[in-house]
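Next up, a specimen:

>
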Amino acid sequence: MRLFNIVFFSCLAFAALHAAQWGDLARHQGKLTRAQFVEKLETRYAPNGAASAWVEIEDSHALIRTGEKPDSDIFYRLKFAGEIPATDEAEISPCTPPPEADPALPLKGLRVALEAGHVGDQYAQLESRLFQIAAEPPVREGDLTLQVVRLAAEKLRALGAEVILVRDDATPLTLSRGKDFASQEIRARAEKINTEIRPDILLSIHFDALPWQDPAHPELMDGPSKAHAIIGGGYSSSELSKEEPRILMLEKLLGGDGDKELALARQIGSAIEKRTGLLPARYTSASAVAFENSPYLWARNLMVTRLYRAPTVLCELYVMNRPLDYARIQAGRYEGTREFRGKPYPNIFEEYAQTLTDALLAYHAPDWQPPVALEQKTPETNITQNTSEAPAVFTKPTRP
């Protein structure tokens, strides 16, 4: 018989450094049945047996190995529903409007955080998230995403939502300016989101780009524009060998956040298809998880989806170095529509922001119908792209 220790946090048997993190799982004891736990673990969070070295499934409970040694004999014991009363399902229902819902303000009571992905202006070069074609204005992803979140915030507030921007200018939250800038910036944002903002849901806004064939001499690449939405999941066995990702994965799996972001991401996918007509992007990574009947939706283990302890969906619409999307970006903000390649298009920032608004309405107030006289006006904003010359250094690095 194999001997092992089970962690109980009412005693001092486990190092204090880890107690608070593992202790966060205590409120999720008995929430899921064995079948529910196994289904979520094996299909979304740790596909292809990625958790087999770290999670042992028994009839009434799971034993989760602590630490970072695969032969560790210290386990966290997670009870399945049936051993103790399960938590009321109503508290994790993803689409329940507040009791005082106002028909004129369908998003009233919803606290939304909008994150403009990356950073812009002179800081964009710290992440290599910019490029320039010939003498045309440079494209900085962080400036583009800030335009989108400002527009989306105005639309959502007009519908009653409380909206907080994770950043409202180009200044990074981290003081780091070194090679670890990108990861340190995400960690600084995570600290702000998790301790100060504490949103009901969070949308992380991005634009996609293809890797350059020659980064020193960028040229636009023909092909269709695409879009996708990413939620937490898709952990690999090597990623789960680290204790922090293992705990954070289990926290999202066991709590309601994972279910909420899945429900919201499905609505975002539907809104992308209806409003933009963009094709769904695809991943070939073995750990990336696709979802049936939701071609725009993927589960991946990114720092954003892992560290932000709220229902989080990373949205990535358009491909900045495709000719059509590049032309629409360079056109900037304009009223109505303009013709590109023989078809009329609204400005790309308005279209992105309205897509997010459509999705949040479908998620939070699925039965709401706008009054006949209601017209959503596009607010003015003073954010513009810095048109000073910049080196073409956008290399589309792998997201942290």
